């Protein structure tokens, strides 16, 4: 049975943008509130391991000065049920302060001056959306899972994506609905749709639509592909097969159904070709600023290693336009390495790329061990959210054996960055400069760019 807590004042707000109040020896957390809000709460769940309860707002008596009405009609839980922007109800200065406090807390006792960088745009920045496909009241709906639920929340008119994506989403709902395309677990059902945009908004912007299905020979695919290609701005339709019972959207490579499925986007000083399933930063402007900064930091290095290089953006920005620069890139995904080679050729950069399992114990042996590339002067790393693998930390923590004098670490998770920084500093590196970027405004995400020098 649920429990109600009447007429309480929210005392604080945490790094997940959830407000809290201490009540009867337990901390009660609730989304959609800010310090100073006077509300009635309904406890909906309790932790069995900590004195902590989770609640929803049953009634609002008054709002604190840090609250603002979300501009998006779907922002949960204040106006809707979408959980994609948990900080949209928090005024911008408070939201920025919460994110900065999280960085400060995790950095701990380090005496390090670091800088905070706001995103140029708080809305309309995101270049990709993934949609769950379902049906509601007989109509096809592209939405997202509501927080802690398998219920699908509407996303039409999403405020953080590029306007082009919202327009394409609306047309997809109408056109695929008119074809009565099966969805979800229905026979031959369409499970997810991913839509990515590239190019200058409003000036030659292009879109690729990726369909994720259980059955690659679904009878409706031909008509659906034709209908999607008729949408203005769509340059290609891709297909991904996923017949597994998993929350992962992609478990295999994508294929082309129609048109051209490789988009070209300019990140920093380099144009990158992006395949449907490839990773590319969702906020082009912020990523470009970070790539340019990393390039400035390593501009004196002649031999550069780009580890976890992906499709090449970070390393190519450091090498483009420079003479006598030797660039080596390593990545575990073969398709990303092939894209990196294409992108290097497009940028006029001579680079050597290799598929390397960067989580394996002998990853270093797969990298150059003779010739000019054998001893890098600077190393660029941009690992996934979990951070560096243990073998990677062990090798990088011996900078003298590598020859490197500088290391630049781009991170999408503050906690894993701090863990890795501890290991690197114990091994002989010194973190001398750090930038924190608001990569995905309205969310809890902070992107870090750190410069390490050999101690």
UniProtKB/TrEMBL annotation:
GO terms for biological process: methylation. The active site is at residue 412. The keyword Transcription does not apply. Residues 270-361 form the Methyltransferase small domain. GO terms for molecular function: methyltransferase activity. InterPro entries: MeTrfase_TrmA_AS (IPR030390), NA-bd_OB-fold (IPR012340), SAM-dependent_MTases_sf (IPR029063), Small_mtfrase_dom (IPR007848), U5_MeTrfase_fam (IPR010280). S-adenosyl-L-methionine binds at residues 281, 308, 331, 382. Keywords: Methyltransferase, S-adenosyl-L-methionine, Transferase. Gene3D superfamilies: 2.40.50.1070, Nucleic acid-binding proteins (2.40.50.140), Vaccinia Virus protein VP39 (3.40.50.150). It comes from Lujinxingia sediminis. It holds the Pfam family MTS. It comes from the Bacteria. The keyword Nucleotidyltransferase does not apply. Belongs to the class I-like SAM-binding methyltransferase superfamily. RNA M5U methyltransferase family. This is Class I SAM-dependent RNA methyltransferase.
């Amino acid at each position: 049975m649920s429990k109600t807590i009447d007429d309480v004042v929210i005392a604080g707000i945490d790094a997940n943008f959830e407000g809290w109040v201490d009540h009867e020896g337990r901390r009660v957390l609730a989304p959609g509130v800010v310090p100073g809000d006077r509300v009635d709460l309904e406890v909906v769940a309790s932790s069995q391991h900590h004195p902590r309860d989770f609640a929803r707002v049953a009634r609002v008596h008054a709002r604190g000065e840090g609250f603002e009405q979300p501009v998006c009609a779907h922002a949960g839980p204040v106006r809707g049920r979408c959980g994609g922007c948990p900080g949209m109800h928090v005024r911008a200065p408070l939201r920025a302060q919460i994110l900065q406090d999280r960085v400060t807390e995790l950095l701990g006792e380090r005496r390090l001056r670091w800088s905070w960088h706001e995103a140029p745009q708080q809305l309309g920045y995101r270049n990709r959306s993934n949609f769950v496909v379902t049906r509601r009241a007989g109509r096809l709906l592209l939405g997202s899972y509501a927080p802690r639920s398998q219920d699908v929340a509407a996303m039409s008119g999403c405020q953080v994506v590029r306007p082009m994506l919202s327009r394409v989403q609306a047309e997809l709902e109408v056109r695929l609905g008119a074809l009565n395309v099966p969805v979800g677990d229905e026979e031959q059902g369409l499970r997810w749709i991913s839509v990515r945009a590239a190019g200058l908004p409003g000036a030659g912007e292009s879109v690729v639509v990726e369909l994720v299905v259980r059955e690659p020979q679904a009878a409706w695919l031909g008509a659906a592909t034709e209908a999607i290609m008729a949408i203005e701005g769509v340059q290609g339709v891709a297909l991904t097969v996923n017949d597994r019972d998993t929350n992962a959207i992609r478990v295999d490579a994508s294929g082309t159904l129609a048109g051209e499925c490789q988009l070209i986007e300019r990140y920093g000083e380099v144009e990158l070709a992006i395949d449907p399933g490839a990773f590319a930063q969702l906020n082009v402007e912020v990523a470009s600023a970070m790539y340019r900064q990393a390039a400035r930091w390593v501009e004196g290095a002649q031999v550069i290693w780009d580890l976890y290089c992906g499709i090449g953006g970070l390393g190519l920005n450091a090498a483009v336009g420079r003479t006598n620069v030797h660039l080596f890139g390593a990545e575990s995904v073969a398709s990303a390495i092939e894209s990196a080679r294409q992108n290097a050729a497009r940028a006029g950069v001579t680079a050597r790329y290799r598929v390397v399992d960067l989580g394996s114990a002998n990853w270093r042996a797969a990298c150059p061990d003779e010739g000019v590339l054998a001893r890098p002067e600077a190393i660029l790393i941009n690992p996934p959210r979990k951070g560096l693998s243990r073998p990677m930390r062990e090798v990088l923590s011996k900078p003298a054996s590598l020859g490197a004098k500088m290391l630049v670490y781009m991170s999408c998770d503050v906690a894993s960055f701090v863990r890795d920084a501890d290991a690197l500093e114990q091994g002989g590196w010194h973190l001398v400069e750090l930038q924190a970027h608001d990569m995905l405004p309205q969310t809890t995400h902070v992107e870090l760019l750190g410069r390490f020098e050999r101690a």
